[in-house]
Amino acid sequence: MCGFIGRISQSNKNFQDLREANNLLICRGPDECKELNKTSKDLFGELNLNLEIIFNRLSIIDLSPKAAQPMVSKKYKTLSIFNGEIFNHKILRLELENLGEEFSSNHSDSEVVLVGLSKYGTKFVDKLIGQFAIVFTDIKENKTYLIRDRVGQKPLFYSTDNNELSFSSNLISLSKLTKLKTIDDKQVMNYLNLGVIPSPNTIFKNIFKVEPGCIIELSHSHNNLDLKVNRYWNIEQKIDNLSFEKKVFENLFSDAVTSRLEADVPIANFSSGGLDSTAIIKNLHDNGHDINTYSVGYVDNKYDESKWFKEVSKKYNTNSIVENLSIENIDNEVDKILSIFDEPYSDPSIIPSYLISNSMSKNFKVAISGDGGDELLGGYLRFTKMLKRKNFMHFFSYLNSIYPNYLGTGNRFLSHSKNFTEAYSSYHEDRNFLKLLNIKNESNVFKKFIPETNDLYKKLLITDYNFYLSEMMMLKVDRTSMANSLEVRSPFVDHRLIEYILGTTYNYLDVSNPKALLKNYIKEDFDSNFLNRKKMGFVFNLEGWIFNNIGHINEILTQGGYVYGLNKNILNKLSTNKSRINSQRIWKLYILEKYLDRV
Fold first, then answer.
1. Do 257 and 497 meet the contact criterion of CB atoms below 8 Å apart?
2. Residue 64 CB neighbour total at 10 angstroms
């Protein structure tokens, strides 16, 4: 587990509080843990801020003690901590060295972050290619900056309560440190509707997330903290209609893949036999790299895809490890897996994601994954449906208004709306669930993720980047991998690829043949059965698990009773009308009650 927790204040605090909160960060234990408990006067001879930081390091690049964090620059009177990886750190280091900067470590990307920010300020962030959550303090300016990567791969939480700055990579640990545990009912409503609480909010009042692509600037004064939010990466501003060139795309893709290979520990590729992971493996093969692959076979033949990933391994001559996992009898595992999440999150794919990460971490510390391929190239079925949809606004809205709330979300009706927000939000929201729970929906939070552009296809892409990828997918990948001390790197979320796709025409798009661009890339190596099969994935039978354990679950929900309006009559409707949607609704409630019981 790589993580940190810290506090910057103008008065002495009990450092033991920080240690106790830090204990909640560690799931399996870091490679090293370093503490800083100093005043700025002790470190730099200026001001008198109390700096208290604990950093738990999962060592990936430069394993030496000189790469340990927090890092301090005596020259610039600055300090930084950094969670993640900078994939172009060697190039940036060389640029800085050519300008006369000196480094203590051999090849630490963390030190590149410190020196670069110290020299250039926050403009240096524009140069970074990677995944990162950074806390940077400049004592001369009397400022601290909280910086999060462009698509939210790494988490960063903060609070400015009582005129002191507290921050952490973990929400529960921060709530323990700050003692800010007042539940925000509005955010509970957003969770029940969306399955996640979107940034900048959290489930707790007065604790916030740094939004993806943003920098929080905090000026320390004697009486208060002045806070300013700056967005350094705005995805909507990347929209253009330049000519798409396949070769340019492939070169960017190749660089995104290759740059993620650097590590001083074992590294492997997730290989599911799907288009995304196969395209990455082909790129590595064609560029002459030795390839380690890790694949999961499913004991249930109905979902087993070993035929396909074995074909990939054979074609590209990979060093293949295959594990056969079963998630049929995991009653004792579910609650343990839920406990790794520091905020309520209801995507049931967290179960197989955790199990895969746990298994892979026994052999590797770094994994290359195909996450983000569907967002980059419009691979989701909802994209196709939205591009082909016919608008029958009034008729279908009427049908939804008379549709019983306990039967479904209303997506089959609302997705045909002429109103884009109403149509596309119906794939992500469950407003009928709120109605069933007698919760008045006072928020239209999904609207903030939708761009103004009239280009329907790019509108879909950006909406999914803003919401599904940044708020949901990256949260799942980070928590399930970090809980197993495994770092996941995803070439398809490289911001240069995203900018290129949004900035060019999409003549490559075939609505009837999703992700044709990737299929064409690998088609010389595989037949049509491989390219066009329905993707199964490693699944968790949520519906079966919920209704097989419904008695126990309903007992927990009845005893907990946090959700207003939840009563035995509503639970009975959900329990007796057994469906995929109702299993997901009960799952949301179960996760919420288990979470609140922990905090």
1. no
2. 13
276 membership: H or E segment, kind and range: helix 275-286
Q: In what order do the strands lie in the sheet with 267-270?
A: 319-325, 292-298, 267-270, 366-368, 487-489
Report the range of poorest mean pLDDT among 67-76, 320-329, 490-499: 320-329
| Residue 55 or 67, more confident | 55
The answer to whether residues 168 and 177 touch, using CB atoms and an 8 Å cutoff, is: yes
Instruction: Kindly report, residue by residue over 494-537, the tens digit of the pLDDT.
Output: 999 999 999 999 998 988 898 999 999 999 999 999 899 887 66
Q: Token pair for residue 379? A: 């691979």
Both tokens of residue 562? 């946090």
Domains (range + CATH), the chain:
3-233 (3.60.20.10), 238-379+469-532 (3.40.50.620), 542-599 (no CATH)
**Token pair 């893709």 is at which residue?**
253
Please give the DSSP secondary-structure letter assigned to residue 471: I
Q: What confidence score (pLDDT) does residue 302 get?
A: 62
Q: State the pairing for strand pair 487-489/366-368.
A: parallel
Give the integer Cα–Cα distance in Å for 7 and 224: 15
Whether the pTM exceeds 0.70: the reply is yes
11 burial type by CB count under 10 A (0-12 exposed, 13-18 middle, 19+ buried) = exposed
> Which of 212-221, 434-443, 563-572 shows the highest mean pLDDT?
212-221
Distance between CA 537 and CA 158 in Å, rounded?
Answer: 36
What is the rounded distance in angstroms from the CA atom of residue 88 to the CA atom of residue 73? 21
pLDDT value of position 305: 77
Give dist(CA 111, CA 71) in Å, integer: 7
Q: Is the pLDDT of residue 1 over 70?
A: no
Cβ burial 223-259 (10 Å sphere, 16+ → b, else e): eebeeeeeeebebeebbeeeebeeeebeebbebbbeb
DSSP state letters, 180-222: ---B-HHHHHHHHHHSS--TTB-SBTT-EEPPTTEEEEEEE-S
Q: CA-to-CA distance for 599 and 595, rounded, in angstroms?
A: 6
- Mean pLDDT is lowest, of 243-247, 304-308, 436-440, for 304-308
pLDDT digits (tens, 9 = 90+) for 357-398: 999 999 999 999 999 999 999 999 999 999 988 765 566 666
Average pLDDT along the chain = 91
Among 422, 395, 398, which Cα is nearest to 411's? 422
Strands 32-39 and 50-57: antiparallel
